[in-house]
Design goal:
Elements lengths: L3 E9 L8 E9 L11 E4 L12 E11 L6 E9 L22 E12 L4 E2 L26 H13 L4 E6 L5 E9 L1 H22 L1 E4 L14 E6 L1 H5 L3 H9 L5 H5 L24 E3 L6 E3 L1 H5 L6 E3 L8 H17 L4
Helix pairs in contact: 1-2, 2-7
Length: 341
């Protein structure tokens, strides 16, 4: 007797300046459980701002497969979007990554707000006015400080069941704000897993009637924005063994502020103000353990003899991890080409 399996094909649409996730289910018979068993599929690009109605077919090329614990007999198929001729679609940020040997490792720290769909405010915010000033909410516990923990815990469990390399969660600085972290050895896979984790969070939010707000500054005023700090390393950073190598690589980011900020997320000027643990969007700085810098050199890296990683603190919570990784890789590779002996 043949078995039926649900494959949820998910992809990024063509909306600007911030792309959204889309997904549709395909029922297959006797699924083998490997990425190679996932056929190419297609969708109507005219409904996602990725094609014109007269020539609307876009292709879904499977790139990552994970179990879907939220459904029975189901898998999630992360896809990149191709044109009908098989070339990468302009909206395809994954195609920009040049890291074929997976030398680059990435860890993304995804911050976000949980929003009440009726009040359009973060959980924990009263219908009128504001809660107590930020401070007690970071890594908090208790009903007066932590809001939406059921959602966050369920998301963590389902991510781990799906085989995603989520490394932790915590309450963030503002009320109703949370964070999870993903890590992968390979830039493309890091992006795949982050997008799948975002998809699962969105779906859990549906269940609770709570919206996931990815905007980098949804609450104006004296409240922290949301980032997606990018921790990264390659062989050079992992084995450098000297401060001069780190200085050289960090300095290579300074003349490329625009190239990075352009793909680090929409409205990031509202978040990168020089306040709330950020550097100004038009300035560049780096330093050891400096959370007000553009790039932070972790104390771990220094204490381990300048062998470790760097953290770019500028990417926004609504940024595309594919595009963020791609530009970081480009800058670091160029810097490594001119690394002093």
């Amino acid at each position: 007797m043949s078995s039926k399996t649900k494959l949820e094909y998910i992809w990024l649409d063509g909306y600007q300046p911030t792309q959204s996730l889309r997904g549709k289910t395909k029922i297959v018979t006797d699924f083998g459980g490997t990425l190679e068993d996932c056929d190419m599929w297609s969708f109507d690009g005219s409904s996602t701002q990725q094609a014109e109605g007269g020539s609307s077919d876009c292709l879904l090329h499977p790139v990552c497969l994970r179990p879907d614990p939220g459904r029975v007999n189901a898998w999630i198929v992360m896809c990149e979007v191709l044109n009908a001729d098989g070339t990468p679609h302009p909206s395809n940020g994954r195609a920009l990554i040049h890291d074929d040997d997976n030398d680059f490792w990435f860890g993304f720290e995804q911050e976000y707000f949980l929003f009440d769909v009726d009040t359009n405010k973060p959980l924990g915010f009263p219908e009128k006015g504001y809660p107590a000033p930020q401070g007690p909410y970071y890594c908090s516990v208790g009903a007066t400080n932590a809001y939406g923990r059921d959602i966050v815990e369920e998301h963590l469990d389902i991510c781990l069941e799906a085989g995603l390399n989520v490394e932790g969660i915590n309450g963030e600085v503002a009320a109703g704000q949370w964070e999870f972290q993903c890590f992968s050895k390979g830039a493309a896979e890091a992006g795949d897993e982050m997008w799948i984790a975002r998809y699962l969070l969105e779906r859990i939010g549906e269940k609770y009637g709570v919206a996931i707000n990815w905007h980098c500054k949804p609450i104006k005023g004296d409240w922290n924005g949301s980032g997606m700090h990018a921790n990264f390393s390659n062989t050079v950073l992992r084995e450098a063994g000297k401060k001069e190598a780190y200085d050289h690589i960090c300095k290579a980011f300074e003349p490329r502020i625009k190239e990075h900020v352009d793909v680090y997320g929409a409205d990031n000027d509202q978040r990168l103000t020089g306040l709330h643990e950020t550097q100004s969007i038009d300035k560049f700085s780096y330093g050891v353990s400096d959370r007000g810098a553009s790039i932070r050199i972790p104390v771990f890296t220094v204490k381990h003899g300048w062998k470790g990683w760097l953290e770019d603190r500028r990417p926004a919570s609504n940024g595309d991890p594919y595009k963020i990784a791609a530009v970081i890789i480009e800058t670091v590779k160029k810097a490594c080409e001119s690394l002093p002996a």
